[in-house]
Amino acid sequence: MAASGVHPKQVHELRSFSDYFEPLLTFVASLPVEEKVIIVAHSISGIGLSIAMERFPEKISAGVFAAATMPGPDFSYKTIAQKYSKASMSSSMDTQYIFGNGPDNPPTAVLLGPNFLASNYYRFSSPENLALATLLLRPFPVYSKPAAQNEIVITKERFGSVSRIFIVCDEENDDVQRWMIENNPPEEVKVISGSDHMVMFSKPQDLCSCLREIGDKYY
Question: pTM here?
Fold first, then answer.
């Protein structure tokens, strides 16, 4: 995503979700007419996947939401954001908030702290992966204004035409994941037992097997 990893942009340059997910959206837009892909989203990247499914349903065979934010035509991102805020961010611990528009306005970005990561996201991942995350993690944007949240427009005709699979990481916040599934049912639900939020680190082989099954069925 933009302003993530080695991407050259900085978080203050991103004004919308489309800016943040621009690398993904550009990739999907560039696919040849006859080519389709399965996209796997993790965590907040479920928003980007949902936007891509709405814009390019003809290019996506299936969308996989691995403990990912999963809005729907009748289930807004704003509703999910409020639930996440109450469930997982009640204690921000050493998380840093960045106020790009001044201290009297809502934060514009957040940088998750090492203690927060260890307690909430990397509980069953290796110490090495946690250490690497603390070195590489960059601030990610927070869009609290209605204009940004209303940018995520999802319809049954486009988004709803793409098959969705949700992967539950059962040692994360299972209640929030199940709540999203109940309010916006996908075609299929898979559960990876013993996985924390970072399923690619805590249960990589199980995730790989799960994705192979999905690929065989939907691609």
Answer: 0.93
